[in-house]
Amino acid sequence: MMQTGSTSKLITDVLDGTVFDYTQLYKEEYSKKILAVRDIPEGAIKYVPFRQFMQNADMVYDYYDGRIIVFNPSCRYAYVYSLKSGLWGTMESDIKKRINIYPESYAINGHNQIVDFYQSQPTDAVTYFLCTRPMSISGAEVYKTMFSCITRGYFRNEPGKCGMALYGSNDLFRWFPISTSVNKYLRGMCGSPYKYFRLALIGSLLPEERLNGLSADFQERWQNKLR
């Protein structure tokens, strides 16, 4: 719960659900190859149930950026809540203990070093990985063939900025890889149609760069034609 004046608001309900494991989306070896492109440790995306995560959790408050960082010393990831947008995200974490020195956001990492989570003028590129929720696109019960997919945003068209991996499924349980790319363009796809799709993105962005959305070119495959 977050207390604001005389009102309280539940902000963790979106996290208290079924845990998604990207490494089990298809074959584990295939998923690890995708993560290895940017040296993302498997533990950084191996989530545990949120209530289990909170049993030994602690918080770091980034006053200047308006962020709450919720970490568990035994986990390789931390949850980040933005007070500006009201949205949650995750980050790779090696935090072992916080340091009480408000308003600074200091903590001790696994190497017994003091780290500051606020940067007044960040300059380093940040590695990212994300996997979308299942996307039905058009009707949920309609088979679609995806021809192309483009990642939209404000970032340089350079190697390593945005790699893509597209998956398809007909039952939301079994997922199959369709195509991959080393840049923001997935093109020249064909083959079996699917009802649902997931897209995984991996790369690194500078502070002034960002991802905004996706564009897709697809065709519906109707199944009620006379034979």
How would you sum up this structure, described in words?
- The protein has 227 residues and is mostly beta strands.
- It has 2 domains: 110 residues, no CATH class; 94 residues, Jelly Rolls (Sandwich).
- It is 6% helix and 41% strand.
- The strands form 5 sheets. It has a 4-stranded antiparallel sheet, with no helix packed on it. The chain has a 4-stranded antiparallel sheet with strand order 10-15-12-13, with no helix packed on it. Strands 7-8-9 form a 3-stranded antiparallel sheet, with no helix packed on it.
- A hairpin with a 5-residue loop joins strand 5 and strand 6.
- The radius of gyration is 20 Å and the shape is globular.
Give the SSE string: EEHHEEEEEEEEEEEEEE
Radius of gyration from the CA trace?
A: 20 Å
N→C terminal distance: 59 Å
Low-pLDDT windows of residues: none
Percent of sequence in beta strands: 35-45%
Proportion of helical residues: under 10%
Defining key terms:
mainly beta; 4-stranded antiparallel sheet; 227 residues; 2 domains; Jelly Rolls
List the helices and strands and how they pair.
Blueprint: E1 2-4, E2 7-9, H1 28-36, H2 50-54, E3 58-62, E4 67-71, E5 77-82, E6 88-92, E7 95-98, E8 106-109, E9 114-116, E10 126-131, E11 143-154, E12 163-169, E13 176-181, E14 185-186, E15 196-205, E16 210-221
Task: Summarize the structure in short.
With 227 residues, the chain is mainly β. Helix content is 6%, strand content 41%.
